[in-house]
């Protein structure tokens, strides 16, 4: 049992595996160099833009929610650290979580898992414009002089143009990340969205 002696040199949790061990960290910490746990305390306004259209499907939407929960668990959530917003879109928009709505990860995670999948058409360009012009504003909790990141999770089959809205977002200083979901995502569209 490698974990019996000095916790396997792990900062937090040592997990026995067959013939070896691995280290693990609590929520809000990142594993660095295999043994050390460091919290991510970087101030950032992070918005997840989730494709809730019919082509995604319920099972892929569940995968999307798990991705959001796992990703946010790597951040220290709070007004001086990471603020997380979530917008679901199709041929409509719904702000599931406002940027400054939750102050801790324990408050945020249940809200993520309680997001319902709706279905509909796909208007990613319109949704990107909404996030830039409405969600990432000071009146909605965005902070001055804090990096702004939008993670678009989509199958990349938008009925509208994504190039111009993504370009406007990038020109305003927003870091755009695009993640494909499902087996038929459009890689070209994802590249057009990403910084």
From TrEMBL:
One GO CC term on file: extracellular region
PROSITE patterns with a match to the protein in the record: EGF_2 (PS01186), VWFA (PS50234)
Signal peptide: none
Record keywords, A-Z: Disulfide bond, EGF-like domain, Glycoprotein, Repeat, Secreted, Signal
Record domain VWFA: where: 45-195
Cellular location(s): Secreted
InterPro entries attached to this UniProt entry: ECM_Assembly_Org, EGF, EGF-like_Ca-bd_dom, NOTCH1_EGF-like, VWF_A, vWFA_dom_sf
Keyword Cell membrane: no
SMART domains hit by this protein: EGF (SM00181), EGF_CA (SM00179), VWA (SM00327)
A GO term, aspect molecular function: calcium ion binding
PANTHER family from the UniProt entry: COLLAGEN ALPHA, COLLAGEN ALPHA-1(VI) CHAIN-LIKE
Listed name of the protein: VWFA domain-containing protein
Organism: Branchiostoma floridae (Florida lancelet)
